[in-house]
């Protein structure tokens, strides 16, 4: 039985859309987290649909807790039971549940595959999934990463492309693990497009938006900074933000 204390780490909400936190900790306090930045920029709405929805993204203290496939499956199943509009449904008409987390969810692809497989074998088999990631994938692992994503059946992905300028990218992102760079994000974005995934890119300038669309992204989200230096959402990719569309 799922403990009621677990959902605070297992799930969080961005604009009313449920995210599964499959990477709940960062290697260091300075490590870039596209998921954390964008989750903070897109605060959950002040609506308590059920006790799984209204959670911010929580960064776990070290050591990172280990949650099982069963924990995540029970969380998904409980979401449907608690939300009367979806109770008993298979999920085929709902927005995708998003794999995210303070770290890079692509480092948890085995877990993601297992969660998706468990859901597909259940009465909730109509649920669809997507991934939100910083896109920092080493070139030596690119083929393997893409193979796992495709094998899991995930067709939608959001990538933190940030900018078309490597220097601006580095300024915003700061330190990354294993020396991964802007070029690795571009290569991963291209690979996702080439493999027919629906790609959304998160960017911080208009040139980044142009690069995203040139690479084949179907939409981009535009972020910026307010006067206090906090990240804010300017445009959500469908004209619904505070600035012009990408």
The pLDDT mean sits at 79
SSE order: HEEHHEHEHEHHEHEE
Largest sheet: spatial strand order: 1-2-3-4-5-6-7-8
Residue windows where pLDDT falls under 50 for at least 5 positions: 1-5, 44-54, 84-89, 239-245
Portion in strands: 15-25%
First-residue to last-residue Cα separation? 44 Å
Gyration radius, in Å: 17 Å
Tell me the number of strands. 8
Helix content: 25-40%
State the shape: globular
- Main β-sheet description: 8 strands, mixed
| SS class | alpha/beta
How many helices? The count is 8
Care to describe what's here?
By secondary structure, this protein is α/β, with parallel strands linked by helices. The chain has helices spanning 7-10, 34-41, 69-82, 109-120, 142-152, 166-173, 182-194, 206-215, and strands at 11-14, 17-21, 97-100, 129-133, 156-162, 198-203, 219-225, 231-235. β1 (11-14) and β2 form a beta hairpin. The longest helix has 14 residues, at 69-82. The radius of gyration is 17 Å and the shape is globular.
């Amino acid at each position: 039985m799922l403990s009621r204390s677990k959902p605070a780490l297992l799930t969080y909400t961005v604009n009313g859309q449920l995210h599964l936190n499959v990477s709940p900790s960062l290697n260091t306090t300075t490590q870039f987290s596209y998921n954390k930045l964008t989750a903070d920029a897109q605060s959950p709405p002040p609506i308590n649909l059920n006790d799984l929805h209204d959670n911010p993204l929580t960064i776990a203290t070290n050591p990172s807790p280990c949650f099982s496939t069963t924990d995540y499956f029970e969380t998904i199943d409980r979401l449907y039971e608690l939300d009367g509009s979806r109770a008993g449904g298979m999920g085929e008409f709902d927005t995708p549940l998003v794999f995210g987390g303070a770290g890079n969810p692509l480092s948890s692809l085995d877990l993601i595959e297992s969660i998706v497989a468990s859901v597909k074998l259940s009465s909730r088999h109509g649920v669809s999934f997507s991934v939100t990631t910083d896109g920092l994938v080493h070139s030596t692992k690119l083929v393997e990463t893409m193979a796992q994503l495709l094998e899991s059946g995930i067709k939608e992905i959001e990538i933190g492309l940030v900018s078309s300028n490597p220097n601006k990218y580095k300024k915003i992102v700061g330190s990354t693990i294993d020396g991964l760079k802007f070029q690795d994000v571009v290569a991963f974005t291209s690979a996702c497009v080439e493999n027919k995934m629906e790609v959304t890119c998160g960017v911080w300038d208009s040139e980044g938006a142009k690069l995203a669309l040139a690479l084949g992204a179907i939409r981009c989200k535009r972020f910026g900074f307010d006067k206090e230096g906090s990240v804010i959402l300017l445009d959500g990719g469908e004209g619904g933000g505070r600035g012009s569309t990408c």
